[in-house]
Amino acid sequence: MIAPGGLTRRGFLAASGLTFAGLAAGGALAAKKSPLVVYDWAYYQKDYKGFAKFFQTYGVPTYVTFNTDQAELAKAASGAVQFDLTHPCIAYIPDWKDAGLIQAIDTTRIPNFKGVDKSLLGPGVVGGKVYGIPWDWGYSTPMYRADKFKPKEQSWESLLFDKRLRNKITLYDEGVAIIKIGGLINGVDDPNAMSQADIDKAAATMIKAKPNIASFWQSETQAMQDFISGKVWVTYAWPDTFAQVIANKAMKGKPVVYMQPKEGMLAWICSFAMGAKAKNVDLAYKYLDVAYSTPAMEFLVNVFYTGGSAMTKAVLAKSDPKFVKQFRLNDLQHALKPPRVWLERHLPNRVAYLKAYQKVKSA
Amino acid sequence: MAEIAAATSVPEPRALRRLRSAAGTLGMLLPGTGWLLLFFLVPLYYVFLFSTGLRWQGVTKAAAVVNGELTSFSWSLWGGLLGPDVSLNVLGASVALPLWAVGVVEVALLALTLFGARLGSWGRFVVPASLVLLVLPYLALPLGESLHRIAGFTSADNPSMSLFFRSVSMSFTVSLAAVVLAFPIAYFLAFCMGTSKYRWIVIVIAPFLTSYLLRVLAFKVILTDQGLVNTLLFDTGLRSRDNPVDWLLYSQFTVFVVLLYAWVPFVALPIFVALENQDRRLLEAATDLGASRLLAFRRVTLPLAAPGIVAAFLFIFIPTIGEFVTPQLVGGSRGYLYGSAIADDFGQNNDWQSGAVLALFLIGVVVVLTATTSRFLRATGGGS
């Protein structure tokens, strides 16, 4: 995934007053400052109600904004950011580890970690040690306005090559995702393991699809604005995007479909990791324990409509059943399984994906 | 003795005065120029190191290797940019040329355009001919989703170079259109507005009182499918509501329009200064000698304003050639330019080495362009 950039409906109301979610913790205690530095997505900085317990006990951490995996990895590697905890997607954990930016995590120091679905742990383990612990997950798939058109079939291909959709699609400005979509259309066995030839063919497919692609969005807000205004009829969307759009007043009575394409949806798991030079390790473990608590997991589902890695019975009981069902939040084993879903994995040849994407943009 | 003492004491105050004067000059110049040089030369040095693999971005060499970065000195990235041939496409026909040859020819054509008048009677032919050849591959009609040109350079093996030529074409067309739009404004202000001209200048530059981002985003409101322009087309019956002009936003046309709007006031000012400083007695003399107003304009006003026009043109051309914010906000999938590629390499691609090569190449082109035209401005007094 990555780069959630826009405001959620709740976040919008809260954003101005909740610069670092201090007020979310409630009352005068919100002003208490914690020395902890968390390098976290702009997406989540909009609302931190789930972390109220930590704020009340230890104060509000300093949040440094994390925008996209690739760029933040570069920024951290250049030494520009000092942090105790960071929040990269789990597919990037080996890169953070190889760059010497993170240290192993002792999960026994996180009591609430017992609720985490162990099937999600694999990608965060490097050389037998846990470097990234899964926290949130979601899909990346097309969302379309059913009031404007009906696709010939539920597929990436039918959207990107439908002549009715000329200039009517906006996709996420993230090279790996775009090339994977091209690969899926071309029928590759696994979009996470494409050869250079597969990548070149995927780029060629996406170049052919460009007449339908009006733009590549860099912020979720931009995508939603264009979608709601009717400038585009199809957008690459996260569950949160879908939830926000259907809740928008302007979309009342206008059907929106969050597509399950026949080629499969893309999906991501993001994770917490401890900075190699973390100065507040003990505090970081306290924060992580709160992160896996029921209120924090519930907040992930109910505020951001995003899956959590510890979907315990207590969490599910408090989660919006509509989204639990639609996104299979209670069935992780099937929610992220290919070929229905292609979960993001570490790519040793990521540079090749990115270079191919630049060709798509330049064409 | 007193006379000798007086004679020997004379050089001391003069030397002191000189010293004080030099110290004053240095004191005035050093802080500003030092500041500017520090933040230009030092980053430039590091960018060069990145471009040759002498520096990499990963915190460790192993991390850099994992990242696919060069970790020892190499010109390979430069070779990748400058090595492949480019194609000159004219009305469907295509000729492959080495990039260096294109560079040499372009600089020669620029020099002939600017200094060809010195060739005497030959200049009458050389200047317009070289101007046409220089301009033709870049002059574009930005109507619809893409730039439409009679001729142009591309490179099938080198997308970055194709982007570079596309950016040059966009900048050139924007700069030319801005000069054409701004000249009448500057002329009117300089010659027709009397004492109220300075109030009008403030009005011309008034849009700069708001942020660039806001002004660019305002275009989205105007140009989107349900925006002002399309609504006007719907209301006048020229388009049905189901069929808006969808290339008004997210196209090269949008980038052109927004850049043009943003830069016209900047262009009007140097042209205004060039016109304002003209000696009006020359126009009177031309009229006294029987020249019509049009002839006086063509033979007196325009040549004297030429340095201002060239300076104004460069004033837009140089910054817009590396533009990436406007394409990102309103260019959509077709507005991608050379500056966008540099921004992507330094950002989401995490490939500072390739970004450094692209950035340095652009700086090199700008330096050559500035050096050539500044000689023209000096020679014509335009720099004063």
Can you describe what's shown?
- The complex is a heterodimer of chains A (363) and B (384).
- Chain A is of the alpha/beta class and 363 residues long.
- Chain A has two domains: 9-137 and 267-335, 3-Layer(aba) Sandwich (D-Maltodextrin-Binding Protein, domain 2), CATH 3.40.190; 139-263 and 347-362, D-Maltodextrin-Binding Protein, domain 2 (3-Layer(aba) Sandwich).
- Helix content of chain A is 36%, strand content 19%.
- Chain A is built from 15 helices and 14 strands.
- Chain A has helices spanning 9-15, 52-58, 69-77, 93-98, 156-160, 175-186, 196-208, 220-229, 239-247, 281-291, 294-304, 313-318, 321-326, 332-335, 350-362, and strands spanning 33-41, 60-66, 85-86, 102-103, 125-126, 129-130, 133-145, 169-172, 213-217, 234-237, 256-258, 265-275, 307-308, 341-343.
- In chain A, strands 1, 2, 3, 4, 7, 8, 9, 10, 11, 12, 13 and 14 form a twelve-stranded mixed β-sheet that branches. Chain A has a two-stranded antiparallel ribbon with strand order 5-6.
- Chain B has 384 residues and is mainly alpha-helical.
- Chain B has a domain at 159-379: MetI-like fold (Orthogonal Bundle).
- Chain B contains 16 helices and three strands.
- Chain B has a three-stranded antiparallel β-sheet.
- In chain B, helix 5 crosses helix 6 (123-135) and helix 5 runs parallel beside helix 16.
- The longest helix of chain B has 41 residues, at 11-51.
- Chains A and B meet through helix 3, strand 9 and helix 15 of A and helix 3, helix 7 and helix 15 of B.
